């Protein structure tokens, strides 16, 4: 297996490995540790179908829970990230986030397999939250460690959220299924230590955090907005450019991610699985 770091703050390309076949235990261990080190890994030139995607996800730690999406037909754990060529609905996942951070046990990672890639645009951006935390002044780090964030999916997936009732007539092709359970809240420390690397990271951002425990709401919103600006500074970003036949896997405990547009008139489809926490 050959590992080429992206040259940005995180991200690496892994070649000389065939993910269409079952992997030996030592190869699984090597891939996992490269993933933990680089936070986002891309495997070009893979001939993977949905069986191979499921097998790879199981090898990396097993399936995470996926609320608010219907899976693709015939599979329980694969969702399609899909945008038709003529679609005009607001872009899916265009805000920085860590997948499903509002769950009790958010997924450790996410896999995304290219099915149809537009000739231009559609890059996925990643923001390294270990680097973002480490670059803060010590006093700020100490203060942030004392805070507990209140996470919720309500702004996105509640019936009155951005993917709720008002999105219904937008002609969205993705199988998003909003419901009332999105209004639930869960508390997570704002700064979390990675269970495998031992490094601290800022966990998640505005989209899924609706407040800070014990803090006045306007003060919390101001803090979260200032922090969000810091979390997405240029020096913390890796821009992932998609290729056909490519799988990527990212670590939700170490990076934020967001989708980008720029492929109007072209179809884009990727198959996605999440990797359960407490793996490794
Ligand atoms: C996602 O957030 O799962 C999708 C990212 C993308 O479409 O680039």
Structure in words:
It is a single chain. With 280 residues, the protein is an alpha+beta fold. The chain is built from 6 helices and 15 strands. The strands form 4 sheets. Strands 1-2-3-13-5-15-4 form a 7-stranded mixed beta sheet. A hairpin with a 6-residue loop joins strand 1 (2-5) and strand 2 (12-15). The structure holds succinic acid. The site of succinic acid (SIN) has 6 residues, from strand 14.
Please write out the topology.
Elements: E1 2-5, E2 12-15, H1 25-38, E3 40-43, H2 50-60, E4 79-83, E5 109-116, E6 124-128, H3 129-134, H4 138-145, E7 148-152, H5 154-157, E8 185-189, E9 191-193, E10 200-202, E11 209-212, H6 217-231, E12 237-240, E13 247-251, E14 255-259, E15 268-275
Parallel strand pairs: 2-3
Antiparallel strand pairs: 1-2, 3-13, 4-15, 5-13, 5-15, 6-12, 6-14, 7-8, 7-11, 9-10
Succinic acid binds at residues 81, 93, 124, 257, 259, 272.
Summary tags:
single chain; 280 residues; alpha+beta; Double-stranded beta-helix; 7-stranded mixed β-sheet; 3-stranded antiparallel β-sheet; 6 helices; 15 strands; globular; binds succinic acid
């Amino acid at each position: 297996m050959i590992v080429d770091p992206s040259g940005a703050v995180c991200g690496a390309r892994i070649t000389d490995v065939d993910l269409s076949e079952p992997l030996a235990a030592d190869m699984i261990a090597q891939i996992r540790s490269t993933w933990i080190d680089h936070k986002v890994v891309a495997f070009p030139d893979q001939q993977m179908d949905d069986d191979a995607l499921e097998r790879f996800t199981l090898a990396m730690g097993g399936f995470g829970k996926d609320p608010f999406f219907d899976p693709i037909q015939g599979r329980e754990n694969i969702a399609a990230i899909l945008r038709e060529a003529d679609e005009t609905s607001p872009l899916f996942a265009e805000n920085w986030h860590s997948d499903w951070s509002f769950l009790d046990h958010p997924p450790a990672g996410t896999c995304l397999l290219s099915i149809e890639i537009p000739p231009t645009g559609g890059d996925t951006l990643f923001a390294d939250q270990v680097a973002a935390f480490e670059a803060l002044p010590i006093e700020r780090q100490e203060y942030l460690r004392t805070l507990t964030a209140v996470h919720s999916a309500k702004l996105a997936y509640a019936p009155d959220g951005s993917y709720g009732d008002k999105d219904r007539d937008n002609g969205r092709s993705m199988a998003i299924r909003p419901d009332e359970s999105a209004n639930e809240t869960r508390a997570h420390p704002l700064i979390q230590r990675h269970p495998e690397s031992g490094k601290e990271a800022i966990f998640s951002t505005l989209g899924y955090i609706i407040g800070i425990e014990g803090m006045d709401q306007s003060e919390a919103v101001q803090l979260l907005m200032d922090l969000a600006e810091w979390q997405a500074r240029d020096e913390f970003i890796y821009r992932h450019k998609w290729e056909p036949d490519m799988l990527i896997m990212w670590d939700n405990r170490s990076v934020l991610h967001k989708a980008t547009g720029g492929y109007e008139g072209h179809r884009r489809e990727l198959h996605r699985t999440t990797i359960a926490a407490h793996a490794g």
